[in-house]
Amino acid sequence: RAYVFGEDVKFGGVFRCTSGLADAFGTHRVFNTPLCEQGLVGFGIGLAAMGNRAIAEIQFGDYIFPAFDQATAKFRYRSGNAFNCGGLTVRSPYGAVGHGGHYHSQSPEAFFCHVPGLKVVIPRNPSQAKGLLLASIRDPNPVIFFEPKWLYRLSVDEVPEGDYMLPLSKAEVIREGTDITLVAWGAQLAVMQQACAEAEKEGISCELIDLRTLIPWDKELVEASVNKTGKLIVSHEAPVTGGFGAEIAATIAERCFLRLEAPIARVCGLDTPFPLVFEPFYMPTANKVSMA
Question: Is 279 in the active site?
């Protein structure tokens, strides 16, 4: 019942994520499609509505926002629970890649976090990607699964061969600390880990949290951490204005107001198109996090 389709997936895709699948399962289940993101999502909606598992791969996540907003996420609601698109998972590369410029390095996750009925998942490494992707495919809700481009060729990890799932909407504390809470997702976790190591040299104990699922996100775990540390930094590659970090900051300000010892800080991308040669100035680097 599972189908994988999208741009170039038949031969393995640009990032070789689907290598060997067509040979193993046949070209009737693993196949290329035209370069039309909304058509891809529309086709996936039809497959999912018929009880299949549709895994679509697209190149530019922000182009498909109308299809997700009007059809995918609201199908169950509009049909009075008679139909749903719970079998649809859309995989999309996103984020900085070192040479992507203003189209190929965008981080549009906040667009999709504004769509009720849709789950947004972002892994930080290969083993997380496998467990979270399997959970996304089997979840009864439509999911957009953002894969950080940095990680395709840079991240090295031991990935279990067997079938396993990691829980959606459950953040993970990957470094315990007492002085300040840091929250991030995707490739930004590696940057935050560098900043934590630098802070430790100055006697600052950082607690680092990987959110993993942005919608619905694990408010309780972040709240508990901030109640312990009294401080919070949120970091993401997307522009700071309207980024998902603002939602986290607002929520924690409400829940932890009496425990906060300093204003919540956001270390994010700039409010500009993603630059090419000036990417190092745009990116939320470990130095910027350390300064914050």
Answer: no
